[in-house]
Sequence to fold (225 residues):
Amino acid sequence: NAGVMQNPRHLVRRRGQEARLRCSPMKGHSHVYWYRQLPEEGLKFMVYLQKENIIDESGMPKERFSAEFPKEGPSILRIQQVVRGDSAAYFCASSQSSSAGGGNEQFFGPGTRLTVL
Amino acid sequence: GQSLEQPSEVTAVEGAIVQINCTYQTSGFYGLSWYQQHDGGAPTFLSYNALDGLEETGRFSSFLSRSDSYGYLLLQELQMKDSASYFCAGGSQGNLIFGKGTKLSVKP
Fold:
């Protein structure tokens, strides 16, 4: 049973370009979460999605960032017109049902390291 | 506001016991989770406390006191491979808030 898969593992973009990060949850999981982690920092919640629905996007910047989890295919985190401050590790996690404040374990992918030049 | 506070670094020797504390302020708080993350790796789930008291899983135990808004992770018989960052996390529904992490260094 494959775990959470993310690609690419490393992504380099120049300022102003677009970054697309993909996440395939574990088999049987319909809940997906995106987090951002800066060096030596904790994980910062960005967005929580179920299939075709955004449940909580309270951690998403209002501009340039968007996320989707279509009926078919992986979840996508999209960052438009990237800036140097977007450089970070972006982790995706999935769970079988709502995380319920941590009661249902979230399984994390290996992350995508985004570097903006 | 929602926040979790934990020490930034802890150092201990192999075979010792270490306790990593976490104090929190989260609204609609369900319980306290702990995650481990090795350098360059993905966070992995260690434990979850929904109720007050101690939960034991092998060498690791986790404790929660809701009245004190406080919990801790206890690691026994430390091994070199336990060197990693440890995060407490809490929240409601799907929105998990993570602490900034405690970097544990285990020395021989």
In short: Chain B is about 0% helix and 60% strand. The mean pLDDT of chain B is 91. Residues 11 and 73 of chain B are 15 Å apart (CA to CA).
